[in-house]
Amino acid sequence: MTKPISDELIAEANARELVALEEDYTALGRKLARTGIDIDRVKDRIAGFSVAVPSWGAGRGGTRFAKFPIPGEPTNIHEKLEDCAVINQLSRLTPRVSPHFPWDKVSDYKALREEAADLGLGFDAVNSNTFQDQPGQAQTYATGSLSSTVEATRAQAVEHNIECIEIGRQLGSTDLTVWVGDGTNFPGQQDFARSLDRYLEAASEVYSALPDDWRMLLEHKMFEPAFYSTVINDWGSSILAAQELGPKAKCLVDLGHHAPNVNIEQIVARLHRFGKLGGFHFNDSKYGDDDLDSGSINPHQLFLVFNELVEAELNPREGFKPSYMIDQSHNVTDPIESMLSSAEAIGQCFAKALLVDRDALHAAQEANDTMMAFQALRRAYNVDVAPILAKARVEAGGAIDVLATYRASRWRDRKAQERKAVGLGAGIV
Ligand SMILES: [Mn+2]
User: Fold this and answer.
1) Spans in the chain with pLDDT lower than 50
2) How far is the C-alpha of 278 from the C-alpha of 219, rounded, in Å?
3) Which domains, and CATH codes, for the chain?
4) How many angstroms does the Cα of residue 53 sit away from the middle of ligand 1?
5) In whole angstroms, what is the distance from residue 83 CA to residue 419 CA?
6) What is the per-residue pLDDT for 126?
7) pLDDT at position 421
8) How far is the CA of 178 from the centre of ligand 1 (A)?
């Protein structure tokens, strides 16, 4: 197995932190024991938790105005896998990569799967792309893809999704994530009902091509690139489409794809209630974007989402197997550092949700004791769970201080010497 960062460097960095970590972990263990919680059991749950990273997140993102590349950023799937391996080696939270096609196309997928495995990585959901045109493509997606009024365009979009399934089979994936940019910029531009009909008909052709153990994750988005309406605009349209397509179709919740201030944790509970919660794209937002780092703006919301997921575990519905992935745009940071920080934020919110005294919460809910129900959540949210995550990491060979260890490795500087420079460009990648 190829390890991008040397074990010696990680061990050296950890040696400086280990005594303090043991002290903090022991103290937190004593505090949690007073409320009947075994810290080692929480740590074991964290050790078993993982979140996928997107291949496209390994490069610097951008906006429609500009993109500012950094020296040493990856320019192909092979270099992206290397960077994803760094994130997983240090954090021990991100063992899978979610590829995007055609961006990550190669000629030999068996070899790509082996290359990833050698780096300690597997593949998560495959993502199709019918929101931009590719060189040599026969039909344009300028006015839509799966919902296009043009039959040949819909057929091309269906064919691309089926090709993604075939690639995914070779990579070991079992999920196809479908997000279409289809929508309108003007009132009257398209008929709301007919465009959804066309989408459903085309999506059902993709659905029919799913292998037995596969799922089709429908990702909704309220706006962008279409700014007046989108065909799969919210969780309502998403669950209706998933119900119509069949049991293998599930809804994917991207935290940034809602109107500002929407109660996303309630949507999570609703989707789960009907067996349609397929997974998450984690990010954060301040206004209406889907680009900021997970937990950087509203970590409390992330905690409340995980609180619903822990509740869902206690009341499982058919096929409850949510997939977790980071999906954010790293415009001003080293993407590796952003994903290390984000994976930590996501893991922390899961750990805090595990600390909620469920008996106390449920009893307070049944007794309509509003304040104590709230306090059951608040007590857990207020716990600093960092020592639990650090202990789980170090036991799995990861770094106690992921960012300091990453910087000590000088990974990006070294890659800047080896990798070809990225050209200037615009647009989200
Ligand atoms: Mn997304």
Assistant:
1) 429
2) 10
3) 7-418 (3.20.20.150)
4) 11
5) 12
6) 98
7) 85
8) 10
Whole-angstrom Cα distance, residue 55 to residue 119? 14
Can you give the pLDDT at residue 360? 98
Tokens at 282, concatenated: 């984690």
Q: According to the model, what pLDDT value does residue 425 have? A: 60
Distances (CA, A) of 147 to 141, 216, 218, 228, 428: 10, 17, 14, 16, 23
Compute the C-alpha angle 189/428/123, nearest 5°. 110
What pLDDT is stored for residue 429 in this prediction?
46
Task: Assign residue 194 a region (left: φ > 0; alpha: ψ between -120 and 50; beta: otherwise).
Answer: alpha
pLDDT tens digits, one per residue of 169-195: 999 999 999 999 999 999 999 999 999
Distance from Cα 87 to the centre of ligand 1, integer Å: 20
State how far the Cα of 78 lies from the Cα of 257, in Å rounded to an integer: 30
Cα atoms in the 13 Å half-sphere on the side-chain side of 137: 21
Cα of 31 vs centre of ligand 1, distance in Å, is: 38
Ligand 1 center from residue 18 Cα (angstroms): 37
Beta bridge partners of 250: 217
The Å distance, Cα 422 to ligand 1 centre, comes to 24
Q: Supply the pLDDT for residue 79.
A: 98
Q: Which residue has the tokens 């938790």?
A: 49
Nearest to 394, CA basis, from 1, 15, 6, 122: 15
